[in-house]
Amino acid sequence: MIKEKRLELIKKIVNDKKNVSVKYLSDSLGHAESTIRSDLNDLNRAGDIKRIHGGAAKIDDVSDSKFVFFENRLSEEINEKKLIASKAIKYIEDDQSIALDGSTTCYELAKLIAKTKLRLTVITNGLMVAEAINNNPLITTILIGGMLSNETFTTEGSFNNELLNEVNISTFFFSSRGIDTRSLTDFNIYEVRLKNQILNKSRRNIALIDSSKFGSTSTSTICQTNDVDIIISDDKLDEKVREKFISKNIEIL
């Protein structure tokens, strides 16, 4: 497909749906995510769409796009994320201090945690994660400070070093944009740096990765795959892919 036609199609999709992710456009048009990002940047410069974190929004809907974008991400592979969360909660025990990133999969886990009678301290950079557990009086929530990303509802930046140096973390639950047998990757360098900090502080690291992320590689490396203690995925993960990880002594559920 020539670029001009692709740009017109992208513009039409964004205007029709009001808010879309790079992944959605990539899957719909059959082009690499890197190509779609470049196209969105071109359309943004031309004033045809508004570029937002991880996707694009219709110009006259930008003011409403922030929460809608989070909702759109949440709806992607929603059943898989719920299944992963139901597996992950079995690794949480009373009186633990745990960390959750701001991913939509950890948001699903947070909603399950909020329904328990576990006494926990939860450290997170995710506003939606914090909101999900905030009404449970048995949970102490520590929100990591930093610059607020209005699209992902997470804090980011280098303002959190002192806090992380002072807390003990039993288990860190986190997600990534891509994973293979070598590494876990993400496109936001600030998120990557924060996750790397928490990984180094935590006694156990559990990656919550839905099957659509396997085989994908993003911009920055969070950690090596063998730095993760357990990977939890969903039932759609190809058995051959699962066997590759197991053959490298990587525990994957």
Protein described:
The chain is α/β, with parallel strands linked by helices and 253 residues long. It has two domains: 3-65, Arc Repressor Mutant, subunit A (Orthogonal Bundle); 78-247, 3-Layer(aba) Sandwich (Rossmann fold), CATH 3.40.50. Helices cover 41% and strands 23% of the residues. The protein contains ten helices and 14 strands. The protein has helices at 3-17, 22-29, 33-45, 65-75, 78-88, 104-114, 127-133, 161-166, 189-201, 239-247, and strands at residues 19-21, 50-52, 55-57, 96-100, 120-124, 139-143, 147-149, 154-156, 169-174, 178-179, 183-186, 202-208, 220-224, 230-232. The strands form four sheets. Strands 6-5-4-9-12-14 form a six-stranded parallel β-sheet, sandwiched between helices. Strand 10 and strand 11 form a beta hairpin. Helix 2 (22-29) packs across helix 3, helix 5 (78-88) crosses helix 6 and helix 6 (104-114) packs parallel to helix 7 (127-133). The model is unreliable at 61-67 (pLDDT under 50). InterPro entries: Carb_Metab_HTH_regulators, DeoR-like_C, DeoR_HTH, NagB/RpiA_transferase-like, WH_DNA-bd_sf. This is Transcriptional regulator. Pfam families: DeoRC (PF00455), HTH_DeoR (PF08220). One of its GO terms (molecular function) is DNA-binding transcription factor activity. Residues 3-58 form the HTH deoR-type domain.
